[in-house]
């Protein structure tokens, strides 16, 4: 009854239970981290702005994105997924969300960055509502932990406006 | 072959040691991992603890066999024979 195999089985079972518990504790310890991320986005240029053949507006922007997301990283963080979305309201949709750029930050050392790029994904409206439109640029992020639940948050930057005329 | 069967007190001791060692290693692993901000360090320390605990508590080490059971001498047992099971009267009457 109390043999080699019995003791090995009891040990494996108990050690896996405890492994689960220390992982849960690691996940809980994330609550003690109060992050203070910062982000600034500048629209450097409106490269072109036109109405597509199907009647939808499309604009191409050159963006200058700088952010410091280092405080999001804890010892339980695997990576951070970050994306920049243009958000605005139209008559049809109370919230339009157009992703312009995204990235995966693999480590804390890469979490303070600065890039200057044209929008990576197309900024196309569902309709022709972009002329003179005020919009927000929102930096969203998802903190992916090694164990436990994913944390999502964002920084909203407002006060951007598209030109009145196509160009 | 004994196939790793330890005496009663040895069984109790090995199980207690197994639980205490695993919990202590888990606590050390968590504190070290949190202090040095390294999840990997936590896992490595705990894995080391599991390995060490396996070596200490799973094989049938001599220190788990310090209280062997004292069986009765066969001659002693013969002097006190096992009582015969009582013969049921109903059963015998059935055959008549």
Question: Keyphrases for this structure?
Answer:
heterodimer, A: 167 residues, alpha+beta, 4-stranded antiparallel β-sheet, B: 96 residues, mainly alpha, 4 helices, transmembrane helix (chain A), endoplasmic reticulum (chain A), SPC3 (chain A), Signal peptidase complex subunit 3 (chain A)
How would you describe the overall organization of this protein?
The complex is a heterodimer of chains A (167) and B (96). In chain A, 16% of the residues lie in helices and 48% in strands. Chain A has 167 residues and is of the alpha+beta class. Chain B has helices at 8-35, 39-57, 74-79, 89-94. Chain B is mainly α. In chain B, helix 1 runs antiparallel to helix 2. Chain B contains 4 helices and no strands. The A-B interface holds A 2-4, 7-8, 10-11, 14-15, 18-19, 21-22, 25-26, 29, 74-76, 146 and B 3-6, 11, 14-15, 18-19, 22-23, 26, 29-30, 33-34, 36-39, 42, 46, 50, 53-54, 57-60.
How is the secondary structure organized here?
The complex is a heterodimer of chains A (167) and B (96).
Chain A: H1 4-29, E1 38-51, E2 57-68, E3 77-88, E4 96-105, E5 112-118, E6 123-124, E7 134-145, E8 151-161
Chain B: H1 8-35, H2 39-57, H3 74-79, H4 89-94
Task: Write a brief caption for the model.
Chain A is built from one helix and eight strands. Chain A is α+β, with helices and mostly antiparallel strands.
Structural Rg of chain B: 26 Å
Radius of gyration of chain A (Å):
23 Å
Strand coverage percent of chain A:
over 45%
Give the strand tally of chain A: 8
* Helical content band of chain A: 10-25%
**Oligomeric nature of the chains:** heterodimer
Taking all residues together, what is the mean pLDDT of chain A?
A: 95
For the largest interface in this structure, which chains are involved and how many residues does each contribute?
A-B, 20 and 29 residues
Q: Which series of helices and strands of chain A comes N to C?
A: HEEEEEEEE
Structure classification of chain B: mainly alpha
Low-confidence stretches of chain B: none
> What's the end-to-end separation of chain A, in Å?
84 Å
Overall morphology of chain A = elongated
Write down how many β-strands of chain B occur, each being a DSSP E stretch of 2 or more residues.
Answer: 0
CA-CA gap between termini of chain B: 52 Å
**Mind summarizing the main beta sheet of chain B?**
none
